[in-house]
Amino acid sequence: MNESKHRAVGEYQKSACRAEVPPKAERRRTFDFAKSRPSKKESFGEKTPPRFRILKLIFMFAAVIIFWRLFILQIFTHKYYVELASGQQDIYKELEPERGEILFRDGKTGQLYPLAVNQNFYNVFAEPKNIEQKEVRGYAYKLAPLLEMTEDEIMAKLSKKDDPHEPLKSKISEETYKKIKELNLPGIGADKTPVRFYPEKDVGGQILGFVGEDESGERRGKYGIEGYFDNELKGEKGFMKSERDALGRLLFVGDFTIEEARRGFDIVLTLDRNIQFFACQKLKEAVARHGADGGTVIILNPLTGAILAMCSAPNFDPNEYNKIKDISVFNNPAIFYQYEPGSIFKVVTMSAGLDLEKVNPNSMYNDSGEVKIGSHTIQNSDLKSYGTQTTTQVLEKSLNTGAVFVARRVGAKDFRQYVENFGFGSPLGLELQKEVSGDTSSLREKNEIYLATASFGQGISVTPLQIVSAFAAIANGGVLMKPYIVEEIKKSDGMVLKTGLKEIRKVISERTSNLLGAMLVSVVERGHGKRAGVAGYFIAGKTGTAQVPKKGGRGYEEGVTIGSFAGFGPVNNPIFAMMVKIDNPKDVQWAESTAAPVFGEIAKFLLQYFEIPPER
So which residues are the catalytic ones? Predict the structure, then answer.
């Protein structure tokens, strides 16, 4: 009974187990059904709350903004941020070149002397962050007497403990800088600053010019040689490019580049140091002696055109150019200021007449003391008449009527051509800033009065350089040479560029040159140029006493004159041509008493200097 009961219970339990476990195939289907997707009605969107949908849109909008911002940064402003980072990490420094020197030569020894050089000054600075604050007072005590500052002033600067750079004193001499360096004070340094220095005083500030700052603060040459050759003298800048570390220190690895600065060219002038000093001194004395407004002396070699001396008064010291109140002093009167030459121009008139064979040294005319042209009356400067005179006497006595006589024979057209051929009315191309051309435009007028007045140097304007160049052409057999003041240029690579001689044109024949030379000797021997002569030598020359036109009106200033004398010597073998000009002397009126004596003193010095034996 019990056994059958237990069997029945066992069969029941087996049957129940079989009913709960499905077959293998059914289990697979049940598993696949569990992996199947929900229906549309059971989709996520239907079941997601609204706040999650809003949050999703916000995230999507933020992603678009971030993407656009990255696009702007990487594409449109990429270069800006690269440069910004470079400015923080990279160093780029321009290396200033050393300016070339200006020199002139001792004609006897050939030795060169500097006219413009570079002198080093130092700008002293402190790096307070590298200075122990407990040492500040000791630093101040040691530096105060050298920097000419008070200890309190120095302590105030050194106490800025986080300051990487604090200027202390500028333009300290090299001697003072060496004393500071010997103190061996950590955190104290100096930057070297070259300053232009002119060691020779009173030898021609207008020739040299100076170096000053332009509107942008850059130092540039102005006026004279400094201005004309500024690009050659200043050299070429170099640069240094490197990276720095977090402490600001240079890294000499990686992207490190250096391009050395190229020194400027040296310029050697044609000026003879000895002649320049002597001529400038004599001019200075003459201007002071006569109470004149100023004066000019130019001496050149007539065979080459090389300028041996060029002086003007008043002069200025280029080292102290900033102290000059009247900036017109910076202009070189030898080339910048034009004036009516007066009787000195009669030589040009006579050269045209002789060259065209319209007159000869013995041609005669009757001097009645005046010439009438229309409503105008031209008289001799001394208001006298001399009767029958030769053309040689025209130059000796400086007769205005005689100059008109020769000019009429030459004719207006040919006269104008000779004037222009001698170089008047256009710049001669001297290597100095601001050479003017003069004014001969009146010679193109048809009225005869312009020809007449120009024949004795009125109604036209010239420069002293043009006058001396014309006389040099007469001395040189009629050949006009281009005047020059630069002998050679020495480049930084060692190459030397020498100035080539340049013939401008043949103005008059050699025959005319010889005839005119003899006539000008007669002016010095017998005429108004006696005080320009040198005993034992034949010197050729001519005086000129010019009136000064009124400013802004017709006519001439009362009692104001310009005395000049131009000539050359010795006449048979000229070694110099010279022009002396004295502006508005107060004690005497005529050039024979102002310019001629200065010419004579310098001529005597030149003949002795060049060791020219006497001719008679």
Answer: 343
